[in-house]
């Protein structure tokens, strides 16, 4: 059986967290909106069609007659069904808690470049974005990364402990990947403070199960996405804040 993943056809976005789990778990799926006869219009049509449990927004997964929305909810399902999370209830809830925390910082990263409204262009809120970026770089990124560093200090190199990764490790990888893209100067300066977090990033990047996907055109490039690089929102190369 092949799952149906529905997400926008031209950005990694929140759908990328689900794609990484599907790819690393070797789980068959269709990336429906990226099929040439469907596209973003087909996604909107499918999302709005009558169903018992309609999704609010992509990503959503159609599986076994169910429509599962919200990234963390989808990953909880995949984790339990396909062994991408611990076997016990406490372990699965812990990994879900970590995923929800990742979702929090992802939302904050997005709101750096859209602090007023998603319906406005970045250029319409650039003054507010520069101010928010300064706080995000200096306060929020370190707060979150310090938390994940603390979680990792008593384990075996993975967030849930043990010898195998969970979907939360894949998501932490993509979070760091996105922050490195959006805030390269800031992240370069603080990387040494979070060696365990960056070790997870590197370990996931080298997982054999992900190599085909990570080097294929199916992996969409960063750009006008959750994580966006605007030089004026990053620290200067000398370490002086531009915000």
From TrEMBL:
Classification via PROSITE patterns: GST_CTER (PS50405), GST_NTER (PS50404)
GO biological process terms on file: glutathione metabolic process
Alphabetized GO MF terms: glutathione transferase activity
Limits of the GST N-terminal domain: 1-86
Domain GST C-terminal: 88-224
Pfam families xrefs: GST_C_3
Entry keyword set: Transferase
SUPFAM superfamilies: GST C-terminal domain-like (SSF47616), Thioredoxin-like (SSF52833)
Origin superkingdom: Bacteria
UniProt-listed InterPro entries: Glutathione-S-Trfase_C-like (IPR010987), Glutathione-S-Trfase_C_sf (IPR036282), Glutathione_S-Trfase_N (IPR004045), GST_C (IPR004046), GST_superfamily (IPR050213), Thioredoxin-like_sf (IPR036249)
Leader sequence residues: none
Record protein name field: Glutathione S-transferase
Species this protein is from: Bordetella genomosp. 12
